Amino acid sequence: MTNVNPESAGADVFDRFYGVIPAGGVGTRLWPLSRAAAPKFLHDLTGSGSTLIRATYDRLAPLSDDRVMVVTGLLHRSAVLAQLPEIQQENLVLENEPKDSAAAIGLAAAILYQRDPSIIMGSFAADQVITPVEVFQETVREAIHTAAQGYIVTIGIHPTHPSTGFGYIKAGEPLEIEGAPSAHAVVEFVEKPSEDTARGYLRSGNYSWNAGMFVAPVALMLKHLLENEPELHAGLMEIAEAWDTENRREVVLRVWPTLPKTAIDYAVAEPAAAAGDVAMIPGIFSWDDVGDFAAIGRLNPAAENSELTVMGDGARVYSEDASGIVVSDTKRVIALIGIEDVVIVDTPDALLVTTKDHAQEVKKAVEHLKASGDTDVL
Amino acid sequence: MTNVNPESAGADVFDRFYGVIPAGGVGTRLWPLSRAAAPKFLHDLTGSGSTLIRATYDRLAPLSDDRVMVVTGLLHRSAVLAQLPEIQQENLVLENEPKDSAAAIGLAAAILYQRDPSIIMGSFAADQVITPVEVFQETVREAIHTAAQGYIVTIGIHPTHPSTGFGYIKAGEPLEIEGAPSAHAVVEFVEKPSEDTARGYLRSGNYSWNAGMFVAPVALMLKHLLENEPELHAGLMEIAEAWDTENRREVVLRVWPTLPKTAIDYAVAEPAAAAGDVAMIPGIFSWDDVGDFAAIGRLNPAAENSELTVMGDGARVYSEDASGIVVSDTKRVIALIGIEDVVIVDTPDALLVTTKDHAQEVKKAVEHLKASGDTDVL
């Protein structure tokens, strides 16, 4: 661990906690429901009545006494404000153009550092589904205590199957941290594995899924960013210094387009792990990144006496011997007859028909449509 | 045979020929493409560029020197005129309300009889697909020669499989009629059989499908109608007498609603067969009544290198490992991934997703929607 503002565990560490919600990512595998103009985080994909970003805010805000910063695309400004009317203007960070996660999360860290170098940030993507909320919050409290001891703390998701779609976190020895009984050192982050490797990870018991959640002192984040991406660090610091001043617009417009694009994993997490600065709290809550329409089926169980999950206000679905998922984003009548495990997503300008087994391949369709110039529906 | 205006075969029998096209029937199994406001006969279901009613007219008009009468619903007046601009006003018979085939075809017979009692009518439904046209026309010529000898002549379709969806015609001895070498007597009409019975019919070689096509002297049609449905006959004759006068509207509005509803099979064809007045010409052309979406697949073969049949102007379909039929009546992008033998019919207010094997069950969906009050899309 690196000694950046370490202190003993205590209630006051929570006063230094600030929630950050990076809200990017279209959710291509959820096309045509999710798309550039209406990305995944703006949808209620669980039938809970809340969009994913609203649910993310509601999980996080009680931990930070409503101090929450959102980083999103300029295009989504009004939609995000409609979802989170309580967000203060200076805490809504709008990207003129996407610059990948290191710039997005790094800018949040730099702005917060500028306001108060002792802040501990907790970054949680806007498009994940987590229950129960109380277990999540208890996990984050442990992470905050651990971060206060000078760690970048990730939350490791207990793997339920040998997924080849996620990166993994290899845990090391337990850490002895007051208020964080389940904290472990992190040996390394590993990229998405082959299925055989993933099976080995599950057997070993030392690996958990990397859901991109972390809690860390902003000063420690920036220290590693400076070491690994000095150009990015310099640009972000320049923007951050201007952020709460009248120069914000000028500096952002000038500097942001010049920033290198890279992932926070390469810019901070992996080198920090190699330096022994990363800890992990196991997340024993239920977690889903709603990666495809099969997930929608899991998260919205079919009504009793039916094998068909129907999502959408005012959906008009008639089914006979049909099972699967229907997402209705229109008022059209949808009739399904004699078709199993089907996935139907009905939107005003695009229709997807596939099966649960092929849900991951939706991304390919989107790539094809992009290549063929059918960008009006993407 | 009954002696109604018999005469020897000769070119002049064709001068007495009048085509009649009953254009009724929504084509429920083709919902949501076919529906009350846009029934089957108004669609181009073969990708030929012609609607079914236009193709029916084009097959028939050369035989009758353009003397063609169309019987359809009042609702379809302008659509039918748009398809058949050459139809004369007095030959477009509009039903205020549907009264089944005996009234529709009987009215055509009565109006034509009023104009000239020696007319031979040939009635062919507006929603069947027949190729090649020349073989059809040669068959009808034989039927006209046979009708001129005092027969109601049906055209029997050679059965290609033991269908339980059609009625059958049992042929008797060959008739010796000049100009009609393949004419046979008809023993009886039989209703839709069980599959076992249908197999027996196919084995016997004496049965053909009843496609509801017939050619007959109007006087003979009316004679049997008078015997079997005197009330219907009286009403139709009253309308027919007023048809080409200024009283048409008054009489139609008064009499039509009072007419009994029955099928031409019961009112004329079956009793006429029992009386020995029915003959049959085998139709050796290819015939399809486009009974469901599986037929659309047969009639619109998939493009080479593809197992997916796509119908619809400007359809925007992306497919990956998909086979079946897509009927696109919108400009929406339709993406199909990993789904086989699917049937997708995409219209502005209703979407059908089923499989070829379940194509016949579409009717059930329509009945359900009717029962549940979703009549806006029917």
From TrEMBL, chains A, B:
Q: Which residues form the Nucleotidyl transferase domain?
A: 19-303
**InterPro entries from the UniProt entry:** GMPP_N, ManC/GMP-like_b-helix, Mannose-6P_isomerase_type2, NTP_transferase_dom, Nucleotide-diphossugar_trans
In terms of Pfam families, this protein maps to: ManC_GMP_beta-helix, NTP_transferase
Occurrences of domain MannoseP isomerase/GMP-like beta-helix (ranges): 321-369
Protein name per Swiss-Prot or TrEMBL: Sugar phosphate nucleotidyltransferase
In terms of domain of life, where is this protein from? Bacteria
